[in-house]
């Protein structure tokens, strides 16, 4: 396994080393913040996106069913000091007991996307029906008993420009229905949305997903942003200051569900100091660095292969 030294030495590893707990505690949302329900401490996500794809031999990627990979990577997660991962795709017919237990024992929470490429809301021709919902429900059922499943994401950049904004209504309908389904299971796992930080539509989406009553609005809002590029960028010039101002009076929690520009090498992640420092800590609940494994898009910090122990 090859490591990118920059992350472990310069950013998340340094800032998060004391964040991993010996055991997992339930998290709760109060107003616009997350809290540890047992200690009462405010919680900040200090995580990485986790979706290994190199060496994949199946059409149904599922890193949480790859026990060899989980054992390999959870050890590194502990060294990095992270407390969360975001996973985009799983196969709900697999067993995830071993991987989820390894993560739980390491004090690591999981944010899981409800959709998959096969069962998602198509931004070009959006619809939301019983068949689509049944697959999302099956995923909920498969992960319902894991104490470290901390949140669901019902859509990732579904409305990503002006022309695709009508699709947001279908995502919000999905949020409503999936929250209702979770209630029937006596579950209160939050359901949120992640946008693509498009300047032409972002404020409309931010406001739209937070309107309505608790049964219909999102429980939290995520922003995928890659504005901050390299050491010569700062809180103001990157546009992070504007992002923070947009969310200052937001009434539900917000976090960066993806961040980490790769246009400037090496990736030094200097935005971490603002995200977990005075610039943003009173507004955002942390974030998820994109991403853990090096893939064709060149965003990773380690090189691994699915099913390989090294």
Q: How would you portray this structure in words?
A:
- There is one protein chain.
- The protein has 310 residues and is an alpha/beta fold.
- The chain has nine helices and 13 strands.
- An eight-stranded parallel barrel has the order 5-6-7-8-9-10-11-12. The protein has a three-stranded antiparallel β-sheet with strand order 2-3-4, with no helix packed on it.
- Helix 7 (202-208) links the parallel strand 9 (191-195) and strand 10 (220-225).
- Helix 3 (67-80) packs parallel to helix 4 and helix 5 (130-143) packs across helix 6 (167-184).
- It starts with a strand and ends in a 7-residue tail after the last strand.
Q: Determine the mean pLDDT.
A: 93
String of helices and strands: EHHEEEEHEHEHEHEHEHEHEE
Strand order of the largest sheet: 5-6-7-8-9-10-11-12
Treating each run of at least 4 consecutive H or I residues as one helix, how many helices? 9
Question: Strand tally, please?
Answer: 13
Kindly provide the radius of gyration, computed on alpha-carbon positions and rounded to a whole number of angstroms.
18 Å
Low-confidence stretches: 1-10, 17-22
Report the helical percentage: 25-40%
**Shape designation:** globular
For the record, give the distance between the C-alpha atoms at the N and C termini, rounded to a whole number. Answer: 5 Å
What fraction strand?
Answer: 15-25%
The main pleated sheet reads as: 8 strands, parallel, barrel
Label the structural class.
Answer: alpha/beta
């Amino acid at each position: 396994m090859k490591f990118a030294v920059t992350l472990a030495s310069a950013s998340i590893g340094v800032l998060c080393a004391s964040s991993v707990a010996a055991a997992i505690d339930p998290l709760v949302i109060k107003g616009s913040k997350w809290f540890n329900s047992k200690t009462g401490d405010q919680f900040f996500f200090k995580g990485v996106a986790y979706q290994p794809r190199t060496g994949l031999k199946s059409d149904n990627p599922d890193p949480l069913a790859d026990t060899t990979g989980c054992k390999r990577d959870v050890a590194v997660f502990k060294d990095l000091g992270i407390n969360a991962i975001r996973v985009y795709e799983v196969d709900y017919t697999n067993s995830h007991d071993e991987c989820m237990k390894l993560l739980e024992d390491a004090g690591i929470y999981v944010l899981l996307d409800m959709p998959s490429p096969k069962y998602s809301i198509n931004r070009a021709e959006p619809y939301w029906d019983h068949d689509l919902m049944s697959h999302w429900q099956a995923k909920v059922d498969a992960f319902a008993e894991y104490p470290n499943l901390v949140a669901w994401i019902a859509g990732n950049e579904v409305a990503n420009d002006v022309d695709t904004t009508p699709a947001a209504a279908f995502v919000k309908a999905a949020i409503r229905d999936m929250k209702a389904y979770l209630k029937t299971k006596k579950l209160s796992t939050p359901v949120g949305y992640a946008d693509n930080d498009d300047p032409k539509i972002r404020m409309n989406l931010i406001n739209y997903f937070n309107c309505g009553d608790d049964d219909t609005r999102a429980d939290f809002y995520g922003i995928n942003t890659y504005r901050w590029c390299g050491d010569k960028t700062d809180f103001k010039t990157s546009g992070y200051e504007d992002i923070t101002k947009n969310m200052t009076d937001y009434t539900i929690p917000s976090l960066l569900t993806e961040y980490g520009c790769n246009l400037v090498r090496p990736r030094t992640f200097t935005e971490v100091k603002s995200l977990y420092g005075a610039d943003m800590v009173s507004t955002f609940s942390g974030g998820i660095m994109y991403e853990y494994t090096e893939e064709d898009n060149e965003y990773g910090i380690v090189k691994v292969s699915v099913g390989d122990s090294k």
